[in-house]
Structure formats: C-alpha cells, structure tokens
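We give its fold:
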Amino acid sequence: MQKTLPKPGFLVMAAGQSRRFGETCKLSARVDSGCSLLEQTVKTIQQVSSRICIVASASNEGVAVIGHRLGVELALYPNQSPGLGDSITYGVKATSGWGGWIICLADMPRINSGIYQQVLALSAGYPLVSPQFDGRRGHPVYFSSRYYKQLIQLKGDRGAGSILKQNGADLKLFDCGCPGVLQDVDTPQQLAELPPG
C-alpha cells in the first residue's frame, strides 16, 4: 500500500508592524470589496484550499479576531514578531507536519485564486515554485519540505529570498498575467491606488 504524502499548506504572513501605514492596522483596512486586506487575501486562498495558517503577532488582536472569524488556523508569535524571517520560522515550526509551505503575504489582496491554484498544482512536481509578472518574481512562493531546516533558521526583516537565491536551479517560475503578484500594500496611498479587484 502506497503511503500518502502530507499536502502543502498556505502560510499567510500577517505579523508585521505596518509602521508605514500609520496608527491603524493595515490588515484591517478595507479594500473595495468591503473586506479587510487580510480577509480578502484569505478568502481568495480559501477558494483553493482549507489548509491555511495565519502567522500573526499576539500583540495584534485584530488579526487574530479576523482569523477566528474566517475559521483558519492561527500561529501567534509571542508579543510582536521582530521581522518577516522570524515570522516564517515561527509559522513553519507551527505547521511542521505539512508537506511544504506556500508562503503568502497578507497585504497582497490582488492575487487571484488562479495564481494560488497554479502554485499548489505545480508544487506536486517542483521543490520551489513562484509566479512572475513582466519578468519579475512575485508571490506566493512554494517551498517543499526539503527546505524545512533552512526556513526555520530565518531571522530579521528579510524573508526567504536567500533560499531562492541559493537554490535557483530548483525554482520553477511561471509567467502569469496577474500584476497582483507584485502589488503589496504598505501605505494608505498604495491602498487607495490599488486597481479594482
């Protein structure tokens, strides 16, 4: 009898401090759909998979409330995560039973479900997968379980780009027509200038 391998899941990074957005939590800010940034991102992923974990800082109760309302798993970094690398490390450790991680940024509401679906489908045949738009690598990015040890050593503000650079030969890039794979929201102006969804 053939052993079934664990499936990958979607790890949504939502533990940042959003300093450039101002006083309010940017992930609670509304997009044109009426949903918050975080809700829009997670609801789009839910069209593809139910295996989702939001990595949030325990100091940001609003993100946890949204996660509970959406019925997804939460990995709460104690107090405040120091940076994206620490958040990835924490989330990967919390979901160590997964068969890989599709790392998503919560502040990218214009990625459509087809992109998430394609990354998930390609994860069956490649150890690293990412979309690209106009020749630029975007998000989300899939990491197979072979990168577990490298992922749990990440620290600081830098994400997992160093792993991609070191293992470029293993990276499957696919062209897409979705500029949302490059569009994150860091300021109220960027939120206001988001193209319609």
